[in-house]
Amino acid sequence: MVHNILATALALPLLVASLPSIVSRSSLPPCSNVDRPCSCPAGATFRNITTYATIGATANDIGDLTNNFFETTWFNLTLLSTTGIYNEYGATRTFSIGDSATLTEELIESETYHDGSFIQRYRQNPDPPEVEKPGGGGTFDGYWETFSVQQTSVSDESTVIYAAYRCDIGDPFDTAGFHQGVINDAISVLTSEGLLTGTNVAPYSTNS
Ligand SMILES: *[C@@H]1O[C@H](CO)[C@@H](O)[C@H](O)[C@H]1NC(C)=O
Ligand SMILES: *[C@@H]1O[C@H](CO)[C@@H](O)[C@H](O)[C@H]1NC(C)=O
Asked: Which residues form the signal peptide (predicted)?
């Protein structure tokens, strides 16, 4: 991964330099989880949706609820099948998004640290990338998400970043509203388990 990013970063200026007449959006690298300008498939529009929150609980307790790639009930989706090994690179999960439509996501990074902080990165499985959301909202033409929980220096407070890059045709889904909703649902579960003893900062999103 690091090697590929480096290779892309090194190769791009050469490509641009050797082809000055076709410097355009199509010369950008394809979209991925990496934070840089990128190129969506023809006809799709890039979107960048990032949700931030602070949860008044330890990263360990938040992780017990959310840091399992094969456990989708905390974000209300019905898991249909998995492949690979739990929380290991290349694992996939497939869930229903209504009618007979399904989405598959592939884990491309999973790290858990000694203090309970963790990060998961995954992408819409690219085979095939186009999935139409039932209800006519639009088509997912690739998306890349990062879910990260960082323990702060306050023992019972952790910051949450839930970030999505998407290539959409139309507007398939209100990801910002959904991510805010499932963070609030997680806060409710932690509260009911007596694990919410710190202060929350309610989730908010940037959407561009
Ligand atoms: C996406 O939005 C976040 C938050 O505003 C920003 O930090 C990041 O640079 C943006 N990424 C891209 C590729 O636009
Ligand atoms: C998840 O499901 C629960 C139980 O049906 C519901 O109360 C909650 O609003 C749902 N959350 C989201 C974000 O859809």
From this structure: 1-18
Task: Tell which one of 95, 185, 187, 191 to mutate to probe ligand 2, the residue whose CB is within 8 A of the most ligand atoms.
Answer: 185
Q: Which pLDDT tens digit goes with each residue over 154-204? A: 999 999 999 999 999 998 889 999 999 999 999 999 999 999 999 999 999
Question: What percentage of the chain exceeds 70 in pLDDT?
Answer: 87
Return the ligand number nearest the Cα of 47: 1
Question: Given this model, what pLDDT does residue 134 score?
Answer: 86
Residue 36 Cα: closest atom of ligand 1: 13
Cβ burial of 59 (10 Å; 0-12, 13-18, 19+) is buried
User: Which ligand 1 atom minimizes the distance to the CA of 48?
Assistant: 1
